[in-house]
Amino acid sequence: MRVHEMNWMQVEDYLRSDDRVVLPLGSTEQHGFLSLGVDAILSERVAAEAAEPLGVPVLPSLPYGLTPYFAAYPGSPSLRVGTYVAVVRDLLDSLHGQGFRRILIVNGHGGNSPAAGLAPEFMADRPDAQVVFHNWWNGPRTWAVVQSIDSDASHASWLESFPWTRLEGVQVPSERKPMTSLEALRTASPGGVRELLGDGSYGGPYERPQADWEAVWRAGVEEVRELLESAWR
Asked: What CATH number does residue 188 fall under?
């Protein structure tokens, strides 16, 4: 259940019997022909669907992350690493102060990986708390499903193309885009990244049949739910 669909009294009542909460992390950045909000949309939605039958509250996805390499694409703001890590740490401290002790971070953007290092640091400072960091799209079970369907699964490709990330009236190419060299991208300036990527996709098919994205989504939701149920010591 999304906390934006609750009031504070309902959250307080929940905390009398449970101390789990989900913090989704996203980003606002170019995703080719898809929404600029892909990472925030997917991290919050997969968390909400996973948590719903368990009655665990899900916070709104943090909409800004670390995406300096996409600076040449309008609509892709980025935080500095130090700022971002401090924001996530502040959120963890605040949640702990309100009584949450088991916090699942569901990340939707690979660039946010520096925040993963906060989990052990936070638990060392607060031994009564547990933090689990999970990239929803490449958890072991979900990634196995992705690879069984199409190994060319990348940024702004079919892997992130769902009905809730597509834009009305926007047509995507039907052909498969050649994969871009990750090594070249790692050393490129923002302008160079745009020159290498063009439309923003790293490569692969832009869309796949409904049965394929449904299988990926189902695996993603189930994996997050399993963590909520059993990832705690």
From this structure: 3.40.50.10310
